[in-house]
Design brief:
The chain contains five helices and no strands. The chain has 77 residues and is mainly alpha-helical. The protein has one domain.
Length: 77
């Protein structure tokens, strides 16, 4: 968390609650406490996360989080 504090703050500011993208109903995970856990999994086991996610949840939520976090590789498709 401390290592990525500035990046997390920027993501929350640009895509979190009250932002223009959020006002259009996107980026629902940003601002939620569980986002920290999801981001940690993106960093350490991204393909495992994607595989498990697709079994349970809509991928648009993870896709939006990947975009906002600014991954250098896309885990989807």
């Amino acid at each position: 968390m401390e290592q990525h504090r500035a990046r997390l703050e920027e993501m929350l500011r640009t895509h979190g609650p009250g932002s223009t993208p959020a006002s259009h109903g996107r980026y629902a995970l940003i601002g939620q406490p569980e986002t920290l856990v999801i981001l940690e999994r993106m960093a350490t086991a991204p393909f495992l996360l994607r595989g498990q996610w697709e079994k349970e949840l809509e991928t648009v939520f993870l896709d939006d989080l990947e975009f906002a976090w600014g991954l250098h590789i896309r885990l989807s498709r």
